[in-house]
Amino acid sequence: MTRARFHEVALVAALAAFGFGAAHAQTAAPQSGAAQKPDNRAGAAKADAKTGASLSGDDRTFVLKAAQGGLMEVEAGKAAQSKAQDAAVKQFAQRMVTDHSKANDELKALAKSKNVDVPSALDKSHQAHMDKLGKASGAAFDREYMKHMVDDHRKTVADFEKQSKSAKDPDLRKWAGDKLPTLREHLKMAQATHDQVAKGGGGKAASGAAPSDIKTGGKSDPTKPVNTANPAGTTTGTNTGNTAGAPPKPATTGK
Questions:
Q1: Has this prediction a pTM greater than 0.70?
Q2: CA-CA distance, 108 to 66, in Å (whole number)?
Q3: 32, 85, 197, 238: most buried by Cβ count inside 10 Å?
């Protein structure tokens, strides 16, 4: 091979090598740049776990609200067991403590699996109601407690019905649906017990006396039989059965 031919071959080889290297550099550069960008997906998942973002905002709000309501049911039920006057109220309160304690444990476990911490104590609003309830006693306590139970369970049933259909998290949606039959039963029991307590209270005087003990201001007691011949039950000096024009008869004594 002549020297000129040798230089020609060498030049072609050099140009080919340079072209390949430049092309490789151009295709490799984006890959190198992409590799340098940090993958934030793992970090975002960890952040979600800390903030409870694994549940949507509405789902998380429901969990916290349900947890507070459950705590209130248990605390109020325990108070009613010791302070209630009516046996039916005490029985209802025991059912509330049993059922809601179980539901609270279930919700706590479910929330933990979704990276949400549920409260272990009542908030200011619920505690204020407990303080108010604690000041009542006897029949007044029964009425106040049962009124709250009716109002509270109406709201709770409505919330759970909505969540059982619209919750974004499938586990939470199922749990809410599973609790509905029991909550509806609670509402039915609460209404019946409330009506019974209200009816019982309405049949007594404010002091707790029976109707027959109520002073009537000199009028006849409507609970006692009426003497049709002498409605007032007193001697009138005349015979109320005397017809017009008949001579007066001696006054009766009512004996």
A1: no
A2: 10
A3: 197
